[in-house]
Each structure stands twice: as C-alpha cells, then as structure tokens.
Amino acid sequence: MDVSEISPEDLPQYRDDFSRDDFNGYLSDIISMHRIVDDYRPDICKDLRYPKVLPEIGVVIPFKDEHLSVLLRTVYSILYNTPAHIVKEIVLVDDGSENSELKSTLDIYLENMEKVRVIRLRKSVGLMMARQAGINSIDAEYFVCLDCHMEVLPGWIEPLLSRLLEEPKALLCSNVGSIDRLTFKLHHAELPQIRYFFPFLIFNLDASTGKYKQSFVESRTNDTEPFPFGIIQGMMVVMRKSWFMQLGGVRFLDEDMG
C-alpha cells in the first residue's frame, strides 16, 4: 500500500500508527484478521506424514501494547492452522499494557474463543517473566511460546511435536520467515548456509559459527531433518513443560533477557 492510496482524512491515523508501531497498522486493520495465506512450504515438507496421535499444546503469547489486529491475527492463525484436537489452550499474557483497546475490545473478541484466555499482569515484568507466567498457567504437557506478531502456516506444529516425542528433552524452534512491515506479505526464510554451519554465542555474546562435521552433513538425507543449534530465534520456543521447569524455567533461558 502506497501512502498516496490513503484518503486525506485517514492520513493522521496512518501516521500515528506507524510512528507508534513502526509498521503499517493502518493496513493491518484493513486485512482480515483470519486471512488465508499461501502455503509456501517445499513439497517435501507437505508430503511428510506424522503420527495421528500427538500430544496437546498450550500456546503462550505475551504482549505489551501490541496493535490489536496484529495480536488477533496471531491468535486466529493458530486456531485456523492447527488441528483442533492438538490446541488445548492459548494463553495471552498482558505484560502491563496501557492501551485500553487491549482490554475492553480484546475481551469482546475472546468471548467467542473458548480455548483462548488472557492473564493480565499488574505491572510489566518483561518478556521472559511474562512467558513464565503463561507457562505456569497452562495444563498442557507441552508448550509453545510465540511472539504476538506472528502467523503460522498449516503443518507448523506436527513436526515439532513429533520431534519432542523422539527427544523429550529438546528445545525446538522451526524455520521462521518474516512479515513485511509495510505490505504484510509473508516471506519464507532462506537458509543457504544452514547445512554447514553451527551457530553459537561466545563469551561476549557475539554470534559466531563453526562448521558441522562432514559426517553429520552427509548423514542428513534431506533438509526436513532436524539439526542441532547453539542458539535459537527467540520468537518461538517449543518444549515439554515438566522438563523446562526442572531446568529452572525462565532462569534456564535467562530471566534478565526480559
């Protein structure tokens, strides 16, 4: 959407939204909150089959003064693109928002979402502690922490849960793309180096890489197979709740990151 397409009377709202959020909130409010997007997964991913019986998940989504339509689109994408028998609950954690729309208006939407509820913290405690509050509240054996401005595609959760059944002590994150802040188009993340380099953090928190062993590279038959990582993208954390808590909860992930 070009600014020239916006009517003069709507320009102040567009500019206010962009100044506050640094993305096109005006366009977000026009786009359907439960839009259907192209499934850009490679055919090899679409052809994979997973166990019919998979455990339930609790999805934790912390937010603070997020644009309402963006937050709701995150929730709707999970409800529409996840098998209903897998989603046990979705917990929104309001980390001290001041935007009134995220209270009264959000509550109206949630009245029609039986699996979705909100926890409101009296004061902001930061991302990591807000996540912990949500994790503490879920009954599901497995949890997924997501940022409040994401959209999932069909088939997003099955490979993650299948992997956790194989490796109960794993911490997982899938291949995460991006949403254009101007057009809200979804982009697939290209990972040309992922087959060869292992990322990790060194003592001063700079990112660095080391080569995977050639034997490991050659052992992988295709790019859908999991690979070990020294760091993960923070917008998604998938794990078994009991093991996460045994490790110390957010202290395991570093509570000061919040």
Walk me through the structure.
The protein has a single domain (31-257), classed as Spore Coat Polysaccharide Biosynthesis Protein SpsA, Chain A, CATH 3.90.550.10. The strands form three sheets. Strands 3-2-1-4-9 form a five-stranded mixed sheet, sandwiched between helices. Strands 5-6 form a two-stranded antiparallel sheet. 31% of the residues lie in helices and 17% in strands. The mean pLDDT is 87. The chain is globular. By secondary structure, it is of the alpha/beta class.
Question: Mind sketching the topology for me?
Answer:
Layout: H1 11-21, H2 25-30, H3 43-47, E1 57-63, H4 68-81, E2 87-94, H5 104-110, E3 116-120, H6 127-137, E4 142-146, H7 158-166, E5 178-179, E6 186-187, E7 197-201, E8 207-211, H8 214-219, E9 236-240, H9 241-246, H10 250-253
Features of this protein?
9 strands, 10 helices, 258 residues, two-stranded antiparallel ribbon, 5-stranded mixed sheet, single chain, 17% strand, Spore Coat Polysaccharide Biosynthesis Protein SpsA, Chain A, globular, alpha/beta
